[in-house]
Amino acid sequence: PSTRPMQPAVRRVTHLVNPWWRSGATVWRHMKTATGNRGLMIREPLSFEQDTPGSNAVDFPSFSFPVNHRIGNVMRKERTGLPEMSEPQVMRHFVRLSQMNYSIDTGFYPLGSCTMKYNPRINEAVARLPGFADVHPLQPEKTVQGAMKIIYECAQWLLKLTGMAAISMTPAAGSSGELAGLMAIRSALEERGEHTTRKVCLIPPSAHGTNPASAAMCGFRVEEIKANGNGRVNVCALRDRIREDVACIMLTNPNTCGMFESDVKEVADIIHDAGAYMYLDGANFNAIVGRVRVADLGVDAMHLNLHKTFSTPHGGGGPGSGPCVLSKALAAHAAVPFVVKERDGHFKFVETSDHSLGRMKGFHGQMGMFVRALAFMMAYGQEGLREMSGTAVLNANYILARLKNHYHQAFPGKHCMHEVLFDDLNHRDTGVATLDIAKALIDEGFHPMTMYFPLVAHGAMLIEPTESESKATLDTFCDTMIHLLEKARDPEKKYKEEFHQAPQYAPTRRADEVRAARKPILRYVEK
């Protein structure tokens, strides 16, 4: 890292932006072209607006038999309403849309609680090998021994890193993994004959946002356990609430305030003494992998987001995967099937188990994600994963050190974990909201941070850099954040309207969020 002294924020940001662009910003903003395009940034109409009757990308041969005879009275009598376009139109339309995308391959994603780390290309190359990419879930076991070994080895890595007793690789996403863990807890309660009396799931406000939905879907009644002044679970409140109607607690550690739940062992003891179970949300495992074995914390169930900690793609990049690890107390209730290794070295699926909660889905997990995650873990090794989590925490603390004298830390302290949480105290009276700062970040070339979550911080700004980002990237981001705050706090409020209009340089402008929520337009209608 460079040891040169830092320059003032505004000077640095000004230097980073092309001088002609900044000096001509006013001209650019009001300049209009005949096409509506800005250079090679094409104003792309909707596909419906490009409808050209008679155009098509495929010519079908005429049928030698009556079509009506084949499909009977379901023959369509009107047009589908889908646009008619030629092949070049279709290709250019979707390529232009893709060029508007912001992705982890184009820039920094500071989204808190999302762990938007870089996806190494080697993972993609391995996952595309024919033996993995073309494997079919209905093939006989003897023809997919290599794929089954991948699933088995990936499971063994995850068990070693967590110290847990059993694992289900089936869950198709983090939310599915949450459900798997909660269903295992419910299955155990049913076996104990307590499923009708233990119906409450305790969740603190610092937990991950999907927890209440998963608990409700599993039939539990959600109750909130208050946080203390440090953003952690209030142990006294937990002791006061614990009774025989409690089935489990869902804890996120590190939590979404960017803090490690330092009383986690005491929380586990309180829960277990009451006959309940402890669920740990593994969304933030990236901060502790290789350093903390969750089994040692008293955890009974935890899902692992392969698309976070182990770098498989998020969202549109591929299907999710959320394996669920279980303690000895819940191991027998894991979802089936799971892969076992026989003495002769062959692998087989175990389809039934006496106390298992059963199948959660038709097939066994997401093969491509297992390949990517295992390639990532093998490339790093155990010590490399430990260094990875340390770097992720170091990067978050660097952002905290750079910004804490400008933005107000929601729960002030010396350090944070993998992400840092600020509230809007230092710009609350400026007329510039957290949303406005986030939108202005788009004009500066950054994806916004997570906004207004968690709810325990007013006007929350949650920033998670992961281990992927360099010091230079973090410095540029922090300089920009400081620059925006200085503009927001201008005594004459001369930049207020500029914030309210941001983003001004993105392909599309700011939407009316209130109108969009209350009067959504869900289908294209010709005017």
Structure overview:
The chain has a 7-stranded mixed sheet with strand order 1-7-6-5-4-2-3, sandwiched between helices. A 4-stranded antiparallel sheet has the order 10-11-13-12, covered by helices on one side. A two-stranded antiparallel ribbon has the order 8-9. With 527 residues, it is of the alpha/beta class. It is globular and about 70 Å long. Helix 6 runs antiparallel to helix 13 and helix 13 (367-403) packs across helix 15 (471-488). It contains 17 helices and 13 strands.
Features:
seven-stranded mixed β-sheet; 17 helices; alpha/beta; 527 residues; four-stranded antiparallel β-sheet; single chain; disordered N terminus
SSE arrangement, N to C: HHHHHHHHEHEHEHEHEEEEEHEEHEEHHH
Output the radius of gyration: 26 Å
Distance between the termini: 57 Å
Largest sheet: 7 strands, mixed
Q: Helix tally?
A: 17
Structural class: alpha/beta
Secondary structure: helix percent = 25-40%
Mass-distribution shape:
globular
Strands in their spatial order, largest beta sheet: 1-7-6-5-4-2-3
Mean model confidence by pLDDT: 89
Indicate the low-confidence ranges by residue numbers.
Answer: 1-28
Estimated share of beta-strand residues:
5-15%
